[in-house]
């Protein structure tokens, strides 16, 4: 191992020297039992040394990595191996960043290093493979040739997670819209005729949106099979944002709070899938409102960006660190099991179906989410 002590936010950063890694690899590869057992497994598996570096990778995992153009695998840690976005954030790489402390794989490795078998789920935002990986990770202490190793088994549960999330996401969004309709209609009774007419018109538009969302769910199911073709139509940004604000005007999450369109919202028009876009901005608005106490103001805005548009949602509170480090993660929720899908759906719909990109910033001045889209799909 190197003598230099590198900084870390979770697991030790130090790595074994290349010559030591090669010795360990050769010893494991020379064992017929190790090779036959590992290569005979259906799921991905690898053996790591105590520094969490790969010293043996089974045939299914080798073939998967090769198919994605990944080589030079021996001696790498899992996050570096599959292109996790976080290792470059720290000199020590995989296992040493702020985000690693909340990673299921890193947490299982920490337990296994103490001699305890551990299993958890892990989500990797991969830069090498081209899509996110959802994995069930199991790590077991292993002793071979008088030395201690870690055997890591990886089961790809991405398809299962996608199906479950899309189903929950549908109910999440449809309940949002139904809540807006219910709130608007509750205001009709006792309202002056002109005021009541406004509420009914807003409720009618929200009802139309609800039907669109039901039909859109069929499209999203097709999307997971790779068959979705978003339906482009012209969207006027100020008009669109005012519709979103009207939808939430009587929603429970907006009680004693305000959701308004900024006065400097620009008159941008883009061609995109309005139903999917409304789910993105609607979830951003709902998350922002939920994050605030009574009296707070949430602001929607849109600006020209090149030939496209950037939609923003701003709320005055700073995001807690735990949430900040896990935004856009499918499995993360501050609201309990099966909830907190808003930011994941924003990223999924924006990047996979609307050809856009999403980002956020947070600090003492508040939290702002940005969703940028091209002028036309």
Question: How would you characterize the overall build of this protein?
Answer:
The protein is α+β, with helices and mostly antiparallel strands and 377 residues long. The protein has two domains: 139 residues, Beta-Lactamase (2-Layer Sandwich); 213 residues, 2-Layer Sandwich (Heat Shock Protein 90). Helices cover 40% and strands 22% of the residues. The protein contains eleven helices and twelve strands. The strands form three sheets. The protein has a five-stranded antiparallel sheet. Helix 8 packs across helix 9 and helix 9 runs antiparallel to helix 11. The longest helix is centred in the middle third of the chain and has 32 residues. It is elongated, with a radius of gyration of 25 Å.
What is the gist of this entry?
40% of the residues lie in helices and 22% in strands. The chain has 377 residues and is α+β, with helices and mostly antiparallel strands. Strands 2-1-5-4-3 form a 5-stranded antiparallel sheet.
The average pLDDT score comes to 86
Biggest pleated-sheet summary: 5 strands, antiparallel
List low-pLDDT spans: 331-341
CATH architecture of the largest domain: 2-Layer Sandwich
Spatial strand arrangement across the major sheet: 2-1-5-4-3
> Could you spell the SSE succession in H and E letters?
HHEEHHHEEEHHEHEEHEEHHEE
SS content category: alpha+beta
Q: Which term fits the overall shape?
A: elongated
Number of strands: 12
Number of distinct helices: 11
Please name the CATH topology of the largest domain. Answer: Heat Shock Protein 90
